[in-house]
Amino acid sequence: MSENIKTTIKCWAEDDRPREKLLLKGSAALSDAELIAILIGSGNRDESAVQLSQRILMHTFGNLIELSKLSIGDLLKFKGIGEAKALSIIAALELGKRRRRSDMHEKKQITKSDHAFEIFQEQLAYANFEQFAAILLNRANRVIRTVAISDGGITGTVVDPKKVFKLALEFNATSLILGHNHPSGQIHPSEADISLTRKMKQAGDLLELPILDHIIVGDEKYYSFADDGRI
């Protein structure tokens, strides 16, 4: 048997065909590696698409959040992954993030810090650089929308309070929740974080647009200024 023959999904044993398995059992029955195998379609001379997908996942310890942080260049380092396959993986993961954000943003009511964290996590946790965002709320503490404020580097980002409150006024918000990520995963607030939060709270009080909380996101965990009694 030619080495090339085994690299295409069509030639695998039927039990090993992710597409057929999806048709017969539904997408929930497939492993992460099988779903990625459908995206890339084929492996390389030494691995099937599923085996290649398993190796890619092993690189990120099976964590899809970490996988979504890989760049096109990172994916191209895997034998059998060309630009088209890398783009397919990145596009699919981005769609997944956007779908979850859309579900969360359907006028969700924020009643505790972990509700805000769920929204910020989808927008901020996947970035390799620091980003700042704000959740705009109506009088019932329901989400109007989440807005991106600024992008920065690995250790910080510059936030212009005027931009934050301008957006809040444009969308008729009555209160805000601030959020930013720490790419290091460390969620303890820095002195700059504390100073900015104090400054934003004072400005919000003057404008009658109160800052209800400031969430620092670090992958699967977070810090809440409100929960810690610091806002």
Verbal overview:
With 231 residues, this protein is α+β, with helices and mostly antiparallel strands. The chain folds into two domains: 5-100, DNA polymerase, domain 1 (Orthogonal Bundle), CATH 1.10.150; 105-224, Cytidine Deaminase, domain 2, CATH 3.40.140. Helix content is 43%, strand content 15%. It contains nine helices and five strands. It has a five-stranded mixed sheet with strand order 2-1-3-4-5, with helices on both faces. Helix 2 (32-40) crosses helix 3 and helix 6 (83-104) packs antiparallel against helix 7. The protein starts with 17 loop residues before the first helix and ends in a 7-residue tail after the last strand.
Mind sketching the topology for me?
Blueprint: H1 18-25, H2 32-40, H3 49-59, H4 64-68, H5 72-76, H6 83-104, H7 113-124, E1 131-137, E2 143-151, H8 161-170, E3 175-181, H9 191-207, E4 211-218, E5 221-224
Parallel strand pairs: 3-4
Antiparallel strand pairs: 1-2, 1-3, 4-5
Helix pairs in contact: 2-3, 6-7
Task: Put the structure in a nutshell.
The chain is of the alpha+beta class. 43% of the residues lie in helices and 15% in strands.
What do we call the CATH homologous superfamily of the largest domain?
Answer: Cytidine Deaminase, domain 2
CATH class bucket of the largest domain: Alpha Beta
Strand content: 15-25%
Q: How are the strands ordered across the major sheet? A: 2-1-3-4-5
Total number of domains: 2
Helix/strand/pairing category: alpha+beta
| Share of residues in helices | 40-55%
Q: From the structure provided, what is the oligomeric state, counting identical versus distinct chains? A: single chain
